[in-house]
Design goal:
By secondary structure, the chain is α+β, with helices and mostly antiparallel strands. It is built from 9 helices and 5 strands. The protein has helices at about 5-60, 70-90, 105-130, 155-175, 180-190, 195, 220-235, 250-260, 300-315; strands at about 95-105, 140-145, 145-155, 205-210, 240. The chain starts with a helix and ends with a helix.
């Protein structure tokens, strides 16, 4: 075959080959676009599933009424903190753990006056107020009814007693939602009256248990805190009690502290500061109850309320 004929034959054959190549490239581009679309859809679905998972985890661990941690989360956290304390003890390190069981008294009057729905909002506001009084590393949760549980890692008995005193003070002085300004006016004109101290009608009784002094297991610590809470109730409330311990010979001051007796400095009306019990807590500041309510609870109203309470404590009003 001559060269011109060969060239013509190859040119004729190349036309369908080029068309097939172009069609194949078009199909490949369309397939790649469809794969990219499916990948984007799958990524969006995975992101949505993750958001739903996080929301389920949050709702499963939070009390729906008060917005703080629920009983299930308290159990899990208590077991984890006890295990951490055991590991630290095995490594010859000191890692104390304190547990506060708090019960609010006088809430029945709030329910009778405002109804169940509004009383629930009052209880939620009070729970958020208590959350501001603890560190970010601490855990506050609703134990049941008007009872709350506070876990204080890296906190010994002395620090737990100061936190208990501060929480009693916060409940006593917390201004309820929609409360009239008459209580504030009465406090300004007659600061030495009982209304200035108990303007909201609520008090807190607190039982304290400390690891390992009062038990090495969750059940033992809860039982010790419950017994201490019962002692605080029998004392009339508005106080804290420590779990029964063997008295130290010649030490009467320790017994006074464990029974929540007021000192002259406490009579001025201010709460004691919560000490950092270890080097890891030296930079901690009072905050929220971690991820359950987040930073949104520390609103400007809450910050102003905390600042006002600090001024009241400082001026001794």
């Amino acid at each position: 075959m001559s060269t011109p004929l060969l060239v013509q034959a190859l040119a004729a054959l190349s036309v369908p080959a080029a068309a097939g190549t172009g069609l194949l490239g078009l199909r490949m581009r369309r397939g790649a676009a469809r794969a990219a679309g499916r990948e984007a859809a799958l990524r969006g679905e995975v992101a949505g599933l993750r958001r739903e998972r996080d929301e389920l985890q949050r709702t499963a661990s939070c009390d729906p009424l008060t917005g703080v941690w629920n009983y299930r989360h308290l159990q899990i956290t208590l077991d984890k903190e006890i295990e951490r304390a055991r590991r630290a003890e095995a490594a010859d390190e000191r890692r104390p753990l304190a547990l506060l069981m708090l019960e609010i008294a006088g809430f029945e009057a709030v329910v009778a006056e405002r109804g169940r729905s509004r009383a629930g909002a009052v209880l939620r506001d009070l729970a958020q107020r208590l959350a501001v009084e603890i560190r970010r590393s601490d855990t506050l949760g609703r134990y049941g009814g008007e009872e709350f549980l506070v876990l204080l890692p890296d906190t010994a008995a002395e620090g737990a007693e100061q936190v208990a005193e501060r929480l009693c003070w916060a409940v006593r002085r917390h201004r309820l939602l929609d409360s009239p300004d008459s209580d504030r006016a009465a406090s300004a004109t007659r600061p030495d009256t009982d209304a200035a101290v108990r303007g909201n009608g609520l008090t807190a009784a607190i039982g304290i248990a400390v690891l390992p002094r009062d038990g090495t297991h969750a059940a033992l610590l809860l039982r010790a805190a419950d017994r201490a809470l019962a002692e605080a109730r029998r004392a009339g409330g508005d106080c804290w009690r420590g779990a029964p311990v063997d008295p130290v010979p010649g030490s009467s001051a320790g017994a006074a502290v464990r029974t929540g007796l007021r000192t002259p400095a406490d009579a001025l009306g201010g709460p004691a500061e919560h000490p950092a019990e270890g080097p890891a807590e030296a930079g901690r500041k009072p905050g929220s109850v971690s991820a359950c309510v987040g930073e949104a609870t520390l609103t400007s109203v809450g910050r102003a309320r905390t600042a006002a309470a600090s001024r009241v404590a400082r001026d001794g009003i």
